[in-house]
Amino acid sequence: MPSLSERVAAARESDTSDVSVNRSDALGELRGRLHFKVVEELGPTLYDRGMSDAELRLRVLEMLEWAVDQEEGLPLTSADRRALLNEIASDVLGYGPIDPLLNDPEVTEVMINGPYDIYYEKSGKLYLSDIHFVDEVHLRRIIDKIVGQIGRRVDEATPMVDARLPDGSRVNAIISPLAIGGPFLTIRKFAVDPYQEADLIGFGTFTQRVADFARACVRGRLNIIISGGTGSGKTTTLNVVSAYIPDDERIVTVEDAAELQLHQEHVLTLESRPANIEGQGAIGIRELVRNTLRMRPDRIVVGEVRGAEALDMLQAMNTGHDGSLTTVHSNSPRDTLSRIETMVLMAGFDLPVRAIREQIASAVDLIVHVSRLKDGSRRVTHVTEVEGMEGEIITLQDLFLFDYGMGVDDEGVYKGRLKATGIRPSFSEDLEDQGIRLPADLFEPEPFARRKG
User: What is the mean pLDDT of the chain?
Assistant: First the structure.
């Protein structure tokens, strides 16, 4: 049986714990009240583009000071008061505790597994951060702010949502009852300054030789598919390749959430729309792709083909809309064709497999496959020409391949790079007819290292 002194100590510890919990709950309630009061009082001022960030922050802090002075019953030290004001200001003006991660240019992805576990990706590796939200309500408030900025919502009726930040960063949120232990929020960041050709060459994603080849193919109006797995860098590569489109062409982009950052003068951006609260009014990628055909595009750029819109994309490519670009989730160039074939069948038409393959072989000229390697780097591993049909099979030929045989260095980083296989594409003459000449040394074969073992 515990001694008297031990029981007294336990009672004091319990009282201290209860006081700490009560104080934490009270601070959480105060945070919520102050946040709501500031948003209610300032309203449209928070979105006034005429105010600088510094002026807006000062206005919010002044309003918070006033709101705190109206509160009674919760004594705050000066340090507590200052911390509370800064935290709420970050919630109102930014995205709360994850602001430092979003502002860090080296962080490429932020993964929030509930209010207390926040991971981030840097240099292709995952790390657990030491920051967290106050509770689930705090996290939900930030999620509602993010999706509300582009007119979307997330609730029990629609517990999943795709959205984007003002800078184009991709956002996915999923809440209960689908997310056990959630809400879960994933943010794939876009660089403030989008990566250019020189950046990808510097990263080793591709070589100057492949960049010159891709530029010639885009200017020659070839239909190009950029394929790869999740997080492999497809959209980043599409951004760079899209930059090769001439400035005097009319470009229409179609995306679920607008991410592409094209800098040509004549760009029209279309974004899909989810259903409203009654389950009506959804506008999908397929409808938008069809609509682009009535907009007199010189180029159609689809952020990602993942469903029945594949059929409409193929038809566009085969009916005079040459030079189209898109991305597809897949594991290899051959798998890309199989995925497209499957997606065309999702359109609901009972088409013979051979007819679908003929459409694909006729429409697609080039596949650029991107992979995320074990060292965290993103590399183009295949540049593959779609030649045509032989019997029932679509024939492919690799023009450039990544040399895995070069191995890895002491830090586990791949030493390999893209190398020409020595095969000249069959569309070379078509490009020359347009005045675009592919130098012979562009495809000069390079020796591949032998894999050990």
Answer: 84
Which fold, 96-192?
Beta-Lactamase (3.30.450)
Task: Show Cβ contacts of residue 95 under 8 Å, excluding neighbours closer than 6 positions.
Answer: 102, 142, 145, 146
Model confidence pLDDT, tens digit, residues 49-73:
566 667 777 777 777 777 777 766 5
DSSP states of 249-278: S-EEEEESS------SSSEEEEE-B---TT
Pick from 187, 186, 144, 158: which is nearest to 273 by CA?
158
Cβ–Cβ < 8 Å for 205, 237: yes
| pLDDT (0 to 100) of residue 329 | 95
pLDDT level of residue 17 (50, 70, 90 thresholds) = very low
Homologous superfamily, domain 197-443: P-loop containing nucleotide triphosphate hydrolases (3.40.50.300)
List, for residues 285-328, the tens digit of each pLDDT value.
Answer: 999 999 999 999 999 999 899 899 999 999 999 888 899 999 99
Residue 234 and residue 240: Cα distance in Å, rounded?
A: 10
CATH 3.40.50.300 residue spans of the chain: 197-443
Q: Which residues pair with 185 in a beta bridge?
A: 112, 173
Reduced to 3 states, what is the DSSP secondary structure of residue 419?
Answer: strand
**Residue limits of CATH 3.30.450.370 in the chain:** 96-192
Q: How many CA atoms lie within 13 A of 147 on its CB side?
A: 23
Start-to-end CA span in the chain (Å) = 68
Contact in structure between 137 and 146 (CB atoms under 8 Å): no
Which pTM was predicted? 0.76
Q: Give dist(CA 438, CA 425) in Å, integer.
A: 10
For strands 418-420 and 393-402, give the pairing.
Answer: antiparallel
Assess contact for 424 and 387: CB atoms under 8 A: no
Distance CA 32, CA 432 (A): 66
Please name which of 135, 27, 159, 45 lies closest in space to residue 92, comparing C-alpha atoms.
45
For residue 322, the 8-state DSSP code is: T
Element (H, E) at 200: helix 197-203
Q: What is the pLDDT of residue 1?
A: 52
